[in-house]
Amino acid sequence: MRVVLDTNILVSALITKGTPPDQICQAWLSSKLELITSVAQIDEVMDVLARPRLRSYIDSDEAAQMVAAIHQRATVLMDVAVTKRSPDPKDDAILAIAVAAAADLLVSGDKSGMLALGDVEGIPICSAREALELALGAKSDDSR
Prior knowledge:
47% of the residues lie in helices and 15% in strands. The protein is built from 7 helices and 6 strands. It has helices at 7-15, 20-29, 39-49, 60-73, 92-101, 114-117, 128-136, and strands at 2-5, 34-38, 75-77, 105-107, 119-120, 123-126. Helix 3 runs antiparallel to helix 4. The longest helix has 14 residues, at 60-73.
C-alpha cells in the first residue's frame, strides 16, 4: 500500500514511541507500506526537526536516521505540481504528493485541516490509527 505521511505524523513518531504515528512509521520501515514523499516535504521535515523548541523532545540521532531512511527507502517525487486543494495553503503540498503518486492513503494528525477534508481526489485522508486498520488490518495498541 502506497501512503503519504503528513509531516506531523513523521515528527510525532519521533516524539512518542508506541503511538499510532510511530506504529505507522514502523510499518513503513519494516516494508509493510511504501512511503511516498517529495523533495519539498523532506526539506520541510528537516526544517521542523531543527526547531529549537523540539530539541528536548526528539533524539537528534533518531531524527537523522529517519531522514536518512526517507532518502534511502521512500519513493521521493522530484517536482510535484502544487495546486489549491485546501483552505490551508500549507496543506496543498502534501495533498499534491498524494495526488501525483496516486497514493492509497494520506495519513495526517491535523484534525481541523487535512482530516476534515476527508479525501483528496478520491484518496482517503485518515488518522494514523485509522491507517493502521485500513493498511494493516491492525488495531492500535495506543488509546491516544
